[in-house]
Each structure stands twice: as structure tokens, then as C-alpha cells.
Input
Amino acid sequence: MTDVTDKPGAGLTEADLAALVDEVGAAEVVLDPSAMEAYRWDWSRFPGAGMPCAVVRPRDAGQVQAAVRWAARRGIPIVPRGAGTGLAGGSNAVEGGLTISLDRMAGIEIDPATRTAVVEPGALNAAVKQAAREHGLWYPPDPSSYEICSIGGNIATNAGGLCCVKYGVTTDYVLGLDVVLADGRLITLGGRRIKDVAGLSLIKLFVGSEGTLGIVTKVTLRLVPSPPPAATLVATFPTARAAAEAVVAMGRQLRPSLVEFMDQRAVNITEDHLRMGLDRSAGGLLVVQCDSPGAARTEEIEAVEAICVSAGATEVFATDDHDEGEAFLGARRAFFPACEGRGALLVEDVGVPIPALPDLIDGIAEIARRHDTDIPVVAHAGDGNTHPNLIYDATDPAARERAERAFSEIMELAIGLGGTITGEHGVGRAKVGSLAAQLGPDVMELTRTIKDALDPQGILNPSCAI
Amino acid sequence: MTDVTDKPGAGLTEADLAALVDEVGAAEVVLDPSAMEAYRWDWSRFPGAGMPCAVVRPRDAGQVQAAVRWAARRGIPIVPRGAGTGLAGGSNAVEGGLTISLDRMAGIEIDPATRTAVVEPGALNAAVKQAAREHGLWYPPDPSSYEICSIGGNIATNAGGLCCVKYGVTTDYVLGLDVVLADGRLITLGGRRIKDVAGLSLIKLFVGSEGTLGIVTKVTLRLVPSPPPAATLVATFPTARAAAEAVVAMGRQLRPSLVEFMDQRAVNITEDHLRMGLDRSAGGLLVVQCDSPGAARTEEIEAVEAICVSAGATEVFATDDHDEGEAFLGARRAFFPACEGRGALLVEDVGVPIPALPDLIDGIAEIARRHDTDIPVVAHAGDGNTHPNLIYDATDPAARERAERAFSEIMELAIGLGGTITGEHGVGRAKVGSLAAQLGPDVMELTRTIKDALDPQGILNPSCAI
Output
């Protein structure tokens, strides 16, 4: 784990901070330590967050540029921050660094003619969806936190979600970006055009770069027509392996719009919480939705049902009713609240090729036993992206240490299965030390080459950069 | 237009070439000038192709590495080449440079369990589609040249096609890449996993980089289940503007799988060739397909029909019959053959936001008049991506000059409408001089920074790099 121990802001003078206020604006600079506290951590509460020298809350790109220039001249680290809902410590403050919170830049403009949204980074994902809906349009990417996470953060992590098994992830919807570079220059990439291959794919390079290459100040998003209503199926299986086999078979024939998995431990934790009659003996549970238009969605759900039965499902329930479907999806969504009160939570995010899901889930169970840590698993199974959730007693240092060892071993397991240490949450601080194990030395060097070229001082989100 | 006048290969000795043969393999090195002729040009016949010092036709990544190392040690430019079907001079040889043709590396392996294809760059797009089909799977990207273009070239240009209005472009299907870097190192990016946000989006950076950052030697492609059959509609409109308005309205409500446009001049050239009874008086013609499953496709086509009628269509014909639909699509596909014999052809590839299509088409007609050049327009209208085709008498230097001026002015027009100089063909040699007009100085500098970081000697496809 990375710990930023140097304190680059320590040498700052009163005059430096006065210059920040002067150059950015008094109303946009937070210097009071108690007020800054709210900007130090993301949801992971990953340790190592420092106390910033200041937090800037710009209202426009010009103020972002001014803040970056102020920091660049002094070699001060910069941490861009969206809604702070990250799960990898990616927006945790750096000791003595400048945190730039984009929460006040939250404008949304929908252009129905080009089917685009021009959005500021602080706009919440749910607000973009809502604004699009008013025009009969849809912004698909739907991280589970969509009601409270920001588009800027979604872009920083290339966020996924539940519907991306059919509709793709954030990068698939970004047509344009305004980015403030490490030297304070503002560039505009792309625009309201759907296809554009002029020059390098720079937009795609910034998406998923977790604030280490630049700070996004405006986004042009592609919208699509609202999807038809979905039919929903819930199936329980004797083993996680049987459920995963059903997922593989579905993907070969159908394009479901949602394929969620819960392992036995996740089912039991949810049932403890909801008491809705979930089968506690099930080795795996799937919630599947299909949203093809018209009668086709019923045919698709019937095909999903046949696949589940032939994979050995012990119980299958399908419905074309929206509210009934949402209730079952609610069981999956209730898992995280159900974990509350059980201890501290480390949310993992490993992914594997889909056929390796059973081996991953079995391997996680073995790691849980060996390290005596409770690790229920939920997964965006259609993408092979799992969230093992390490629950431990935060007041017990030995338990914490066991959980952290398990956390590392789960990443090693995923890499060994041809997978990734992060499918959608990002590397952040939590996994920067594990990145080399996945990427290898040459790709790490290439990454460093690009980082150095774009940010020679290394001031942009340094705790998340290799 | 770029003309490479220096001759970096001129200082090469017999010993240098003997070393190439020795290091790569005698069977893989072509030194005979008449044999090399076939590797000098792409389909654009864009002027400026040089005579390479040698052509290498490697059989594996190791031989690509050996060839790159040989060239890197000597500072010799390298031009990677796929099937040579490019339309922007992107694989035209550099005088005295080393052309690396990937045509012998054409392996295809389908893995139905992970729904992926592992493909060598020389494999043809159509061969990948066929191999996937044998497993009930589909590789969607479909450039018009899909029967003869290679996956490596598709990746170099981030190729689009007809179905990308619904199914996306090449970059959306690339899960993994093996790339030989400018110093000969071979890196592996991504793999058989659908979601992966560990590290920078390097795969996406290489896709669309036109051989200026590295040479792809292996690709992992995402496959999807075969789509249902499509219903087809053909509609004629009094004006191009009316047709474009129908396209805008469709996009707001529906997700057609194909939306192709032909202007009046393109309709007439095609009708001259086919004599199938197309309406010569039509200002614009649309061919639309919908491929939602089951009865929904008929409902969608009916909705398309209603939109066309309400946009002022003079004639609309819809069919659910596959062969009949293919016949109408055939009219669109017959346009390029219909141009043959009419003169030399410069194929443009400009794109605009969809509502700007009518202004683009009107503007192109005005440019055609002013420069006395025949410029029929076809378009992937659902994406706002047009192909104005400049037909001129190659034996008349004045006609050629007028066509080239028109070519430049069409790019300026597209940029002025918020568009791009290339939607899917790439920059190549043909447009490298026009790139700055679209991207502006800061983005050009950022592009150069990345190029310099990855290829400090500037040896990778230098005529296509800024």
C-alpha cells in the first residue's frame, strides 16, 4: 500500500495561499481544516489520506486552470475529486496537496437533435439520466452508486455498472472532453459527432486515467433512445459453478441487459436483512433481465429460463411485470445495505474471463476460510466482474491484517485466472501497488512513459500513479 | 499534402540488407523491386509513395520484432501494412523505408466460452466474421471493404462500417492487443476479459493510431451472438435536407441497425449502372434496416416508415424479406462499382453532427459547382459520416487540381460545421496536413508529445504522423 509521507505543502507560505485565493477566487478556496475534512476521503476510507493545503471548489474551467497553474508553479500535488464515492481511495487527499473538488461544476445540457448531453464533471450520473429522460433519451452507464456518483468520477474510473453487459461502459459514451492539462492549458477533444478518427484516440486515453493525466472540465456524452421495459428472471443453483455455466451459455445465444450473481454467503446476508424468502441453501443466485422490444423480451426470458434449468437450476421464477422484477433486483441491490453493521468493508472488484468465474468464486471461498474472513461475493456476472466483499472487525488489528492479506490474494487469484485486479472501480491508492503484478514491467514502463510525457512534474494525483 | 523527399534508406549497404535477411529470415524478406511494387500503395493511390528498401512479410511476432529492431538500430522508417485497402495512403511506402506486411499472419481462433476471437492482424475481417459464425457468434464491425480488408488495418484506422450506427466501431470490440513497440519490445495489453480498468486505457490509444505508435501482432476481439434477421426500408425524399431530418427523428426514438444515405447525384450514377428504377428526381434516398428480434423489427420498420412519411418522403417501400432487403442494400453497395470508368476517384470521409448533414450536403454541392467537379455523396447517415466522392479526369492536371482544392474545402466545411475530417478511413498521408485545422495547436502538441514519448526516433509510419 502506498503511503505518501513527504509533505510537499509543508513549505507553503501565507503568501502562497494568499496567491491561491487571489488567482482562483476567495469564494472558491477552502482553507479551514475542519471544512477540508469532508474532502479528504472517498467511500473506501482507504488509509493514507493526507490533509490538503487547500481545497478549491471551482465554478468554471478558468478557475480549474488557475488552480492547476498555481500548483504547477510550486510543484504541489493535485487531487481532482468528484462526488467522493470512489471505492479505491482514488480521490483521497495528499498531505499538503491541493484538492480540486468539481462538485460545483454540475451543469447539464441535453441536445435532442444530436442526442448528446454536454455535462460538467460534478453532475451526478442520476441527474444526467433524469435530464436525458425528459427528452425520451437515456444515458446507459449505471454504476450501483449512480444516484450519488458524479460523471467526472465515472470518467476517471471508466465506470461500469449493471446494464453494461449489453450497453457498454462509460468510455463507450464519451464523445468529447475538455481537459485541463498538468501545465494548466485547457484542451478540447472531440465533440457532438459520433464517429471521428482524426488523430490519436486521446479521449479514450483520458477516460479511466483516474486524474493522473488531466482534469476533465466538460464532457460530451452520447445518449440513446430509452430502452423498452425489461422482463426479469431469478434462478437459484446448487453451486456457484452451475450458475456461472448458465451465464456462459446465455452469452452465447442472447444479449440480456443485466446478469447479476450472488454467492451463497451473499444470499444469506441479504436474507438476514430482508427476510424475503431467498433460498439460503442455494450455492448461487442469478438475477437476469432482458429488454428486447415487444414480445421478444418474453421469448428471451424463456430462453434464459431453459438455459438455467439445463444448467441445473433448482428454482426459476420469471416475470414480465416491472414492479415484480424491480423487487427481485432489489434483493441484489439490498446486499450492500445488508452488510452494514457487520464490520468494516473492503470492496474488491476483480474480473475474470466468464468461464473462470466458478474457479474465482471457489478460490475466494478458500481464501476466506484460510484467512478467517467473511467474504460474500456479488458479481456483474455477464461481464465476469465480481465484487468480493471483505467484512472484518475494524477494532481488531489482526482481523484487519487478515482481511488485507485476503484482499491481496484475491487479486493474485484473479490475475492467475487471466483476469484483472479491477473491473470498474479503478486502481486508486488501494491497488496501485498491485498493478505491476497484472501489467508486467514493460507495460508499467510504457504507462510511466506516457505519464511522464503528460505530467513531467508528476503532480497529478501522484498517489494513484505508478 | 505530405511528400517524403528524404531517402533514409539511401545509405544502406549490402551488409545492412544481408543483416535484415539474417535476422528476420530469407523467406520473409522481399528485396526485388518489381515484387515490392505490390506493397507500395493502398487503394487511395495517394501520391507520394516511395520505394522501400525492403518488404518484410513476417510469420510471427518474433519476426516483427526482429524487423523493427533492425530498422530501429539504423533509424530506418517503418510502414506497417495490412491488406492495403486503406483510403488515405496510410500504408503507402516511405522511400527507403522498411514496409512490414502482416498478410502472412492471419490466424484466427474462436473461443465460444469467452465469446472471443484471438486473431492475427493479417486475418481478413470477413474471415473473422465467418469463423465466428461457425460458432453462432458475430463480429459486428463491417467496413464496406470487409471482404478484403484486414483486422490489423481495421485496428489501425478504428474502422467503422454500416452496422456501427447500432453496434459500434472497431475499438468497441478490442479486448486485447499484442503490440511491438518502436524499440522492438513486445507488450501484451488486456485479454479475454470484458471489463478491465487496471492502468491507462492503452489498448484504446493504439486503436486508431495508424501504425504510428506500434505494430499490432495479435488481437483479442469481443464477439456477440448473431443478430436476428433485419427488415429493410427504402425511402426517397424531395431534398437531402428532408432525408436528414428523417434520420434525426429516427435516432431519437429507435435504434436502427443501418441508416444509409445517397444524394441525388449518387442515386443517378447508381441508376445509370444498375437500371433498377431508382427515382432520379429524388433529392435524397435512405436505406434503413432494423434488426430487433421477433415482431419488434416489423414494428420498428413501421415506425421508420411513419417518420419518413412525416419528413416528406415521396416514396417508401418496406420489406421483411431478407433477399428483397439485400437487393435494396445492393443499390447502396453498387454505388462504388458504378463510379468505375467515370474517372479517378478521391473518396472523402468527413463527418458532422447529424443535424448538420443537410448543410454539409448542400455545401458539398456548392463546392462541386464552384470547382466544376462531380461529387456524388453517400453516407452512413445514422452516424453523420459521409463519403463525398470526387470524380475527375486524371489525365487533366487542371481537373486534378480542382478536385484537390474541392477535397480540402470539403474538410474545411466539415470542421466549420463542428465535424471531423475523417470519420472512419483515417488520416493517413492524405489528411495529415489538414489535421491541425481540426485539432488546433494544443491538441497537436499533445499528440506530438505522446508520439515522441513512444517513438523517440520517429520511425513508425512517419508520413502519417504529425
User: Anything to note?
Assistant: Residues 1-7 of chain B have pLDDT under 50 and may be disordered.
